[in-house]
Amino acid sequence: MKIKYELIKKENNTNARYGILKTNHGEYELPMFMPVGTQATVKTLSPEEIKDMKCGIILSNTYHLWLRPGEDLVKKAGGLHKFMNYDGPILTDSGGFQVFSLAKNKKKDITEEGVHFKSHLDGKRLFLTPELSIEIQNKLDSDIAMSFDECPPYPVTYEYMKNSVDRTLRWAERGKKVHNNENQSLFGIVQGGEYEDLRKYSAEKTVEMDFDGYSIGGTSVGESKDTMYKMIDYAVKYLPKDKPRYLMGVGDPIDLIEGVIRGIDMFDCVLPTRLARHGNAFTRLGRINIKNLKYKEDFTCIDEHCDCYTCKNYTKAYVRHLITSDESFGARLLSIHNIRFLVKMMEEMRECIKNDTLLEYKNKFIKEYQNGKNN
Amino acid sequence: MKIKYELIKKENNTNARYGILKTNHGEYELPMFMPVGTQATVKTLSPEEIKDMKCGIILSNTYHLWLRPGEDLVKKAGGLHKFMNYDGPILTDSGGFQVFSLAKNKKKDITEEGVHFKSHLDGKRLFLTPELSIEIQNKLDSDIAMSFDECPPYPVTYEYMKNSVDRTLRWAERGKKVHNNENQSLFGIVQGGEYEDLRKYSAEKTVEMDFDGYSIGGTSVGESKDTMYKMIDYAVKYLPKDKPRYLMGVGDPIDLIEGVIRGIDMFDCVLPTRLARHGNAFTRLGRINIKNLKYKEDFTCIDEHCDCYTCKNYTKAYVRHLITSDESFGARLLSIHNIRFLVKMMEEMRECIKNDTLLEYKNKFIKEYQNGKNN
Fold it and tell me: What is the C-alpha radius of gyration for chain B, rounded to an integer number of angstroms?
């Protein structure tokens, strides 16, 4: 079965939408934040912990799984869910973004056929095409697969972007043609950079192909926040109301609010887990680094408004001790906190959409987050 | 309250004993294996996971906590239990062993007063005395503290060992004098190397001081297995029946059996967690390294006889993928398996003691472990 999105309510004052996503692995409320399990594991965490945090979909990376352990092995294991022991829904990206960000020496050769590049692990020559990306994802058997796209750097010329958007459209068409997994949905990706007409063009042409959902790519690549928000606006208005909309690679708390307000349903980002490994934690009153000396004898929890396992059971002083002593349990505790922080924000925003109070939420949140005592 | 040991049954065919240890943090059956939480965390694991594995006492290292985060901070946090959120019993070692094994450049200067050495973290000059070790442990507020001893290398001359044993006895006396925590028990340590009469002397003199329990030190320092087993025999017969006996730093499965047979009640070792971080796993049919290519597409669990979380939910292929991809969830899954493996062995041995079948268990276990297909 393909996923099914049901729009329940649009907020009165913004474009935010509350809806239900039906998947083969449960029904979930949108908007939603999806933590990233790059290598078939959300770093440091168990599937049970992911569920305890009330996560729904998690994301895994096609490029990484292609290199290690290989899609054929995952298929033999019975698919990604069984391999990693996660029975919630999984979305796989296309590998396109990793080709551009991780490929060794950033040297790559983009041709009409696909992208030549080198493995970030051992420098081995690799060639990824739209067909291969989809075939890998078919074998991984994720709930949602993404079309293979080019994610251009920022900024590029209008000319470059126009050609890139056209190629991404041709790639989307090619990927769709080989997609062959009845239990897997396929999303199209809208590109176009900061160019309003190219976003419109990319969105309309992608929607014409009739995907199961649409994502907005090419954000968080160096552009300003205002530019990113415009990119969302330019694209969203051409996307159908009965399909989920996914903003890729965005996980900053304020960006989540701005995205939801603009009609985004799904977000993913490595930010909460990556920050955790470096000792950073979200709080309502700003982001903190637990390594800071001022937390050495702070026997309060990280965020008194948080209901996560970490905040219920551990002090800043203990988490600081773990992080400064290179104990991985520290990264685990902070990952739990940071992911739960974003997931809880989404819960709160869903309530606000139902009650048409999202702008109040935004103003209060931003005020506290930007001016709180932890800044 | 101090701990209280109740001997329930001695095995008919060996010196093995089944007993109950009453602590301020619950009652536990002995013999028992205690996992090590060096820096106030059993590496990669949560307190809940430790309990799920049916562990009882865990061990934490005085030397490490003295350096980081410091015993005063732990005291301010409300003691080690509260600091690390573990409400089971905790034993702290004296720091003696770490001084000898970790001190920077292995340079140390042993005087009657104490040991001068350098921090393994930053080379800072440090001075640890029997009194300071006990004072630190008093502040950590563990359930069981250890006397500060000298752990001599192997081999040393009779002369050296005799002097060392005498000094360790004087240090034990000094430590006992300053021990000042009514809720903390204090163990004496029997040294004497491979010299039968020195083990007897050390044991008798230590017992005269009347500690709450006795441990056997100076094993696993390079001697042969046979020599280690003799060291145990030499000491155990002079230890009182109504106090627990603890063999320090021993965690090899066969050594656990040999120790239990000789009348040991408690063991600790970093082996299960250290092996885990290097991809090694205990199985009934021998130790395996999960990185071995032959497990790449092995979709069975690590050990079909194991009841741990890892074996119930994950395949060798997945754990191998995590370990080879440097994902810390792999070390966590193997730590769970390895600790549970040893804890389950102790459960089985306790049953064997009740049924006087420990020698059959030993023979069957050793045969499978040494000749099984995983060797």
Answer: 20
